[in-house]
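This part of the workshop introduces the protein records we will be handling. As an example, a complete record with its sequence and its structure tokens follows.
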Amino acid sequence: MSYDALFYAGSEEPHFLEACTLCSKPLGHNSDIFMYRGNTPFCSQECRQEQIECDEARERRWKKMSSKKSTTETSKKSATVQTGTLVASN
């Protein structure tokens, strides 16, 4: 495969399989490419695993923050609830 084949037709941007997403190491034309989430290439299992671990940690933080936000909103709503008896006369 020629270097020119790594570019999209009519585009100046390099093809997404040109370099490892994590370390930017050029991907060899006759070497294994380790894919993650469809179209994210990596040069090795180690680079791919590092990205997976980063994504999982980010997801755990997001869920933790969402959980805290939900709990805070629920406690704020319950704190503003007023109860009592209303007596009306004619």
Notes: Residues 13-67 form one domain. The two ends are 91 Å apart (CA to CA).
